[in-house]
Amino acid sequence: MMDRNEERRAFLIKSGAAIAGTMLAIRGIPAALAAEHEMAMTGAGGADGYVIQSNLAQRCATCEFWGGPRRLARDGKSITVTGLGWCNNPKSENYQKITSPDHGPMAVWTKWQAIP
Ligand code: SF4
């Protein structure tokens, strides 16, 4: 069983977030901010990504407008995420910015239509 730090490391390696964090730092957004968002993840590391519950409201991973790599489980109860993503919601303050899957809560969030 992995401890919290091991889970974080596994997620960062799988998602390439370390590279994205460097890119964010170049854009003026501290890499620590991306790491802070990652720390709030609620799931456990899996073989092919980071798993979060699909009923987590007002977060990017469950938002209709999020453009990150994600896969809804067959039973619809969880989402496997493998990286950061773009916000595609024109009503969001993060529109056209890269966000972490657990970013939020956000009032302009809209539930991903794929979630039952
Ligand atoms: S930043 Fe807000 S509106 Fe944009 S994808 Fe994330 S939850 Fe949705």
Question: Keywords for this structure?
Answer:
binds iron/sulfur cluster; three-stranded antiparallel beta sheet; alpha+beta; 116 residues; two-stranded antiparallel ribbon; globular
Protein topology:
Elements: H1 4-15, H2 17-26, H3 31-39, E1 50-53, E2 70-72, E3 78-81, E4 85-86, E5 98-99
Helix pairs in contact: 2-3
Residues 60, 63, 65-66, 87, 89, 92, 94, 99, 103-104, 106, 108-109 line the site of iron/sulfur cluster.
Describe this structure in words.
- With 116 residues, the protein is of the alpha+beta class.
- It has one domain (4-99).
- 27% of the residues lie in helices and 13% in strands.
- The chain has three helices and five strands; from the N terminus they run αααβββββ.
- The strands form two sheets. It has a three-stranded antiparallel beta sheet with strand order 1-3-2. Strands 4-5 form a two-stranded antiparallel ribbon.
- α2 (17-26) crosses α3.
- It is globular and about 30 Å long.
- The structure holds iron/sulfur cluster.
